[in-house]
Amino acid sequence: MSAPWWQWVASTDSLTARLMAAGKPGAFRVRVLRQTIGLPQRDEALALGIAHRRYAWLREVALCIDETPWVVARSVASLHHLQGKGLGNLGERSLGSWLFQKPDLVRGPLEVTSAAPPFNRLTLGSSASSLWGRRSVFEHGGLSLLVQEYFLSTMTDALSLPSR
Ligand SMILES: C=C(O[C@@H]1C=C(C(=O)O)C=C[C@H]1O)C(=O)O
User: Where in the cell (predicted)?
Assistant: First the structure.
């Protein structure tokens, strides 16, 4: 991975904050693609240590600058953990803004992939392709939340980043 991409992919602070800083003021927006109760994929359940045939909270978003998706993300949490956390009302507010306010927040190790997002609808039907993906588990107040983020080729063009 090139050094400029490493700066993005290996960062452990809020990606929302980084994207806001990289775009023009006010240009950042979370577009919710899907938020639902559904079955996690097997690898997601494994990463969270939950049963993969148990329903979970799933949220898929595009993180956009000027309406162009730069990152697509899918987050997964067990329903049991979610109770009383108020995540259902998040809407188009960023999960990152919510998470990074928690004083007890712990982020597990990052796993990185060059594979495309395994969730089809996140390709958005656009010509953007995913260059790097990563995931980690956030822990806060008994909640374990798997956040998977895929960095799109649109960022390469907009920020003059290397091809990988
Ligand atoms: C985890 C963060 O939150 C971002 C916001 C998300 C959302 O609103 O669903 C999903 C993934 C993120 O990249 C972050 O800002 O670091």
Answer: Cytoplasm
